[in-house]
């Protein structure tokens, strides 16, 4: 099965399970699906990034291209996480009897970075890094760092506010926010590691 098709199937199944558990008001099953989805995404990302931590890779002539491919994959993982969040919230609040008046807002908020991340991943992969300038490198590092801090804030806020374990109008969305933020935090750290690797390569080339 094609790589993109595999992710599409995974996204469809996960969102479908989020919708089904929400429609049944199955609180713990819903958070379990969210947790397993994000843990699976993190696991795949670690496997994809692992070659960068292999010291033998420094001897590979195609290292820069491989690092850029990994950067593209990380951006795609982030896009998947945001898309999963957007589609899950939409399905849980517009295809079930659950109601939360902020659902459409957060669904749109998550859709925007999903599109941006997926487009950026596509550009990196198709151009083979030809347009990856010093300015782009600095910008992507800043965005990854900003996203990491933002996701830390989301996780801490949900934990401190006591939203988890309490049935409110936004209980299903809180599962998406909490586990999605954890996934994006880890992906941001991985992305920063890739940016550091790219910066090191640029210094070697100078």
Tell me what you see in this structure:
The mean pLDDT is 83. The protein starts with a helix and ends with a helix. It has helices at residues 3-23, 27-49, 63-94, 103-127, 134-161, 171-205. 37% of the residues are buried. It is mainly α and 206 residues long.
Write the layout of secondary structure elements.
Elements: H1 3-23, H2 27-49, H3 63-94, H4 103-127, H5 134-161, H6 171-205
Helix pairs in contact: 1-2, 1-3, 2-3, 2-6, 3-4, 3-6, 5-6
In short:
This protein is mostly helical and 206 residues long.
The helix-strand sequence is: HHHHHH
Largest pleated sheet: none
Count every helix, treating DSSP H or I runs of 4 or more residues as helices: 6
The structural domain count equals: 1
> Gap between N and C termini, in Å?
41 Å
Dominant shape: elongated
Number of strands: 0
Regions with pLDDT < 50 over 5+ consecutive residues?
Answer: none
Q: Helical amount among residues, as a percent range?
A: over 70%
């Amino acid at each position: 099965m094609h790589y993109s098709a595999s992710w599409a199937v995974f996204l469809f199944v996960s969102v479908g399970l989020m919708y089904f558990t929400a429609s049944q008001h199955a609180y713990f099953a819903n958070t379990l699906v969210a947790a397993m989805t994000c843990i699976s995404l993190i696991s795949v990302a670690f496997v994809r990034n692992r070659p960068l931590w292999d010291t033998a890779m420094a001897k590979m002539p195609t290292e820069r291209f491989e690092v850029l491919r990994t950067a593209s994959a990380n951006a795609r993982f982030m896009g998947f996480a945001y898309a999963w969040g957007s589609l899950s919230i939409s399905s849980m609040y517009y295809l079930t009897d659950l109601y939360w008046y902020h659902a459409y807002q957060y669904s749109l908020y998550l859709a925007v970075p999903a599109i941006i991340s997926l487009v950026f991943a596509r550009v990196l992969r198709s151009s083979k890094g030809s347009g990856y300038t010093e300015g782009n490198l600095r910008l992507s590092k800043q965005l990854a760092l900003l996203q990491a801090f933002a996701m830390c804030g989301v996780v801490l806020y949900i934990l401190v506010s006591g939203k988890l374990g309490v049935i409110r109008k936004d209980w299903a969305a809180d599962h998406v926010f909490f586990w999605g933020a954890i996934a994006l935090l880890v992906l941001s750290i991985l992305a920063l590691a890739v940016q550091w690797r790219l910066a090191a390569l640029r210094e070697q080339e100078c």
